[in-house]
Write a structure and sequence with these properties.
Helix content is 49%, strand content 0%. By secondary structure, it is an all-alpha fold.
Length: 204
């Protein structure tokens, strides 16, 4: 699975569903009444400053391995985990908002499924499998339309995880550079859109 294919999958990914039949995972964080005041957006915050982070060390390890299978390092940019995507995911699923709490449940159930499937195939947890074993599992769940019936539910989870990973990676400086995105950069001149693009849109 290369990065370019991952981006294509992100654009076509279906909505994620909660895994059924997985062992119970930790309960969602109790929601407070209201969200409180907005944070001071003129300050810089580190993960954990706004609310306690909830992923365990082993869950962060699983998250890192899975992130790097989705967005591995290559000649153009570092891997997802190298630019803080795991910190983003931990912060995201720790936030006390309905969407984030729903994603938290999905991710935790997904990690449980990965370890269970890894033990079934290789006798150990996902992070300890060889890369070939990790890739074999991901290949079975990486594309929902092609997933076998017994992999449909984890494939929906994988789609949501892939979305979050790609969103976080391509929001970083390194991710934008990998896309050759030139926005948010001062330029001394602007030549307009390429002629080829104008022709494609019928504007010439």
């Amino acid at each position: 699975m290369d990065r370019r294919m991952s981006v294509k999958w992100v654009l076509a990914a279906a909505a994620a569903g909660v895994l059924s039949g997985a062992p119970p995972v930790r309960a969602a964080i109790t929601m407070a009444q209201g969200y409180g005041t907005d944070p001071n957006l003129t300050k810089s915050y580190r993960p954990g400053d706004l609310w306690p982070l909830t992923l365990t060390r082993s869950e962060r390890q699983t998250a890192a391995v899975l992130c790097d299978l989705i967005v591995p390092a290559d000649a153009h940019s570092p891997s997802a985990s190298a630019v803080g995507v795991v910190d983003f995911l931990d912060d995201w699923v720790s936030a006390p908002y309905p969407q984030q709490q729903a994603d938290r449940q999905k991710l935790l159930e997904g990690f449980v499924w990965l370890d269970r499937e890894s033990r079934r195939r290789g006798g150990t947890v996902f992070v300890r499998l060889p890369v070939s074993g990790q890739t074999s599992i991901c290949n079975d769940i990486c594309y929902l339309p092609a997933a076998k019936p017994r992999f449909k539910t984890p494939a929906r989870l994988f789609a949501r995880y892939r979305d979050l990973t790609a969103d976080a990676f391509y929001a970083t400086v390194q991710g934008r550079a990998d896309l050759r995105y030139i926005g948010n950069v001062p330029r001394s001149s602007y030549e307009g859109p390429p002629v080829e693009v104008l022709k494609l849109l019928g504007l010439t």
